[in-house]
């Protein structure tokens, strides 16, 4: 039978290209996911992580081999590696975003110690996508995604691909089973599949027999007319578990499990996107997989948290995994919470030579083979983001995608309307500051805003408001254009980049949230599109000061809210009641409120601002902003109360300096110093010189359980403290 064992633990790391002459003592013990260099959150040179490093792992096979084949599975290592087992080369891989495996059967010692060495090149190799020219993001180094050890019988299953059929009329399921027979004899096998509902009950079974000839073959299982199937949707992302067992006579040889969903996703020629037959206007953001300090080496918890932020804080229906396949943990969470995904191959503007294109075609295949069972994924991006046309190359990427996955449409992101339309959906980066009339349908806007209006979370109020309103205006316009399927803004989070892009500190301040995933006003706009049935949202886009905007004051005051009415008070006095600004934003589910006429006179006294939101006549939410603008408290907040003692798990520690009512004060720049006690460490800059009034560190678990206490101190405010359980 198959065994799949985690293989993230007990690695050694050396930041250099070294051989046996360097003893283990000079290596650092590490756990994967691992970044080859912890960095500050900005102001560093990407040359710092561009080196060859050496990973070692000494291990005894954790289970007897019993004539099985043994593989090492890597989910991702940046950007090229060679691996050696007991001194023999077992394989190499080029490309940092797709998984790869090495068959170690013939090299592994069945008893006694084995030595695995991975020589990892994390430089910007021009022969590997995305490199060859400049790139607007960083490809931090390290074995940054999970590693597993897999045992399988010589005759076993490769992947399975479950393809729901006719989900709206007569639901059925076809399952492609890819068989790999590495023995020297053909093998007659029986395949038995079970479909389980979320409560674990088996709702259907299917069977077939087939001959697994030596080498690779393919079989199919069919579930005809399933009854009572619950659809996967954004509000109710219902998931099923499909298991397939392969038997040889009475002996089970293999078992594979996949989580699947029944949904129909179509971009149609009328220009609309339809989920389960219903028109859905797509509103979303792009996500890069990089984080402050840790590069791309974020454990499952942080990956999942990003999906939660996009769905529950930013109210997105869709995310684009710009510009590469992202973590399986992120995609799993998208399935669980109902967040649609447009996933694309690695690359940025540049197309390399035929070998480079060969890697890219392999990336198309690896992406689809890895991710084809995710119901959240609705579109494969099979062009290098914003590259020039290349008929032969993109005919090939499209043909490959359609052959591997006939159930999904393709897109390919470009920035010129005259681009050759070889895909199913014309996916277009629209930096016109509006939404252009489509030339082809279906047409999906895959980027807007970004570099057109970079905005820091401590920029002047007018700029922050305008940044938010640019997102609001374009989402509104896209929502009103029948021939546009929706708009995915650039981007969710600020990100580290090369010096050719970004601000002076090498951050692209293009996010609606900062690099720590903390909101700017634009995030409040997205959040305000969430239904008030889920939660009321109300955020006034102001610092409520006389002296921030040009010419002073706060007129007009913009409030992002999903309420149907707001009342604005200055001090005790009702200034007025307002309805959503449907005139300016006729197409948004929840238009911003424009509170006009707030004339402040120089020298007049500011009183506290209070905005109350009403839904169906009842007050449901309010925000107050202190007129005195004084720092009142240092706030510390952990995203999780508990993390796992696995040496890699992390949670975010957010800190802010706030006014009397909990509003962040973006110009407070005092230093905050942290101490930690217990079996965990802080990752990030400590002390931290505050910028923008808010930032975050990560708390990383050690290998032992216990209680962790973190304290923070800063001048003139009371210290703050939080605790966390490591289990
Ligand atoms: C686009 C590109 C993105 C990002 C963005 C900034 O052209 O596809 O990766 O660089 O510009 O606005």
Describe this structure in words.
It is globular, with a radius of gyration of 27 Å. A hairpin with a 2-residue loop joins strand 33 and strand 34 (573-578). The strands form twelve sheets. Strands 3-2-4-9-6-7 form a six-stranded antiparallel beta sheet, with no helix packed on it. The chain has a six-stranded parallel beta sheet with strand order 25-24-23-22-21-28, covered by helices on one side. Strands 39-46-45-41-43 form a five-stranded mixed beta sheet, with no helix packed on it. The protein folds into five domains: 3-151, Jelly Rolls (Sandwich), CATH 2.60.120; 155-260, Immunoglobulin-like, CATH 2.60.40.10; 281-527, Glycosidases (TIM Barrel); 538-625, Immunoglobulin-like (Sandwich), CATH 2.60.40.10; 633-726, Sandwich (Immunoglobulin-like). Helices cover 11% and strands 36% of the residues. The protein has six helices and 46 strands. By secondary structure, the chain is mostly beta strands. Beta-D-galactopyranose binds at residues 136, 322-323, 385-386, 429, 447, 450-451, 490, 510. Beta-D-galactopyranose (GAL) binds at residues 136, 322-323, 385-386, 429, 447, 450-451, 490, 510.
List keywords for this structure.
5 domains; Immunoglobulin-like; six-stranded antiparallel β-sheet; globular; TIM Barrel; 36% strand; 6 helices; 727 residues; binds beta-D-galactopyranose; six-stranded parallel β-sheet; mainly beta
Break the fold down into its secondary structure elements and pairings.
Elements: E1 3-6, E2 11-14, E3 28-30, E4 52-59, E5 69-74, E6 80-85, E7 88-94, E8 100-103, E9 114-121, E10 147-152, E11 155-165, E12 172-181, E13 187-196, E14 202-212, E15 215-223, E16 240-248, E17 251-260, E18 265-267, E19 273-275, E20 278-279, E21 282-286, H1 300-313, E22 318-321, H2 328-337, E23 340-344, H3 354-371, E24 377-381, H4 391-404, E25 409-411, E26 426-429, E27 443-447, H5 461-480, E28 486-489, E29 495-496, E30 507-508, H6 521-527, E31 538-540, E32 557-561, E33 565-570, E34 573-578, E35 593-595, E36 609-615, E37 618-625, E38 633-638, E39 642-643, E40 650-658, E41 671-677, E42 680-683, E43 688-689, E44 694-701, E45 706-713, E46 720-726
Parallel strand pairs: 21-22, 21-28, 22-23, 23-24, 24-25, 26-27, 39-46
Antiparallel strand pairs: 1-10, 2-3, 2-4, 4-9, 5-8, 5-10, 6-7, 6-9, 11-12, 12-15, 13-14, 13-16, 16-17, 18-19, 19-20, 29-30, 31-32, 32-35, 33-34, 33-36, 36-37, 38-40, 40-44, 41-43, 41-45, 42-44, 45-46
Helix pairs in contact: 1-2, 3-4, 5-6
The chain binds beta-D-galactopyranose.
The site of beta-D-galactopyranose has 11 residues, from loops.
